[in-house]
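S1.2 Input.
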Amino acid sequence: MRFEIITIFPAFFAGIFEHGIVRRAQAQGLVGIGVHDLRAFTHDRHRTVDDRPFGGGEGMVLKPEPLAEALDALGIERRQREHNDTREQHNEGTREQKAGQVILLSAQGKPFTQAVARELSKMERVVLICGRYEGVDERINELYCDMELSIGDYVLSGGELAAAVVVDTVMRLVPGVLGNEASGEFESFGVADAEISTDEEGVPRSQHGAGGLLDYPHYTRPAEFGGLRAPEVLMNGDHQQIRRWRREQQLRKTFNNRPDLLEGAALSEEDRQLLDAIRARSDN
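S1.3 Output.
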């Protein structure tokens, strides 16, 4: 899989992808990352990439010409003009068949979630456009981009941090990148039990798939630290008890920290009973 990043600050990425899993994935040839300086696609002596917005307003806007040239250089074809109301529907219908995605990173984008990351991890190439200033000329979005993504409900100075987040999140879901493939399944926002195929034959699984919930708390040695002891259930070797305890903790942490996730989570009848008990205790 390959990532292409278009930015006016290529030096930002000089060290950020040289550590940990990202570095190993590149060294093993599982992931490639290309960083492209937008100013290299300008033709004036000031290497101008921005201009004042039509209609007035604060700040500057990234010009369409350098971005179009950068995308053309990457072999991205310009889409035929479509009515705005049909463009998103068109994109959703063709995204699965495409070998790559062009993404504009923007505070106005759809939320970047683990589910989106899983879909992107199936692509051969992902092109990330880092917005700056007040944003990017909307015609680039309409003519080239498959989707607009936001990593959170806040405003960054530019899309570089967001690009690094997307690369790290998606890359670790590429087969072979993680040392243990199950690490990408048994974690916050992970898939449900029905979608997990990493059980070892003859070994009872001691955790549920997250199914959209947050992860459960983790403990390691020593058994006692700072006057607190790790839960006894985790040390008794009973996989079924451990699994039930971890599921209850997933539900409890999600209920306390992200109750919005419960609405779309994959919950069993047993989960709902545990959740009812958690709600009842919180009301007392």
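S1.4 Remarks. Residues 89-97 have pLDDT under 50 and may be disordered.
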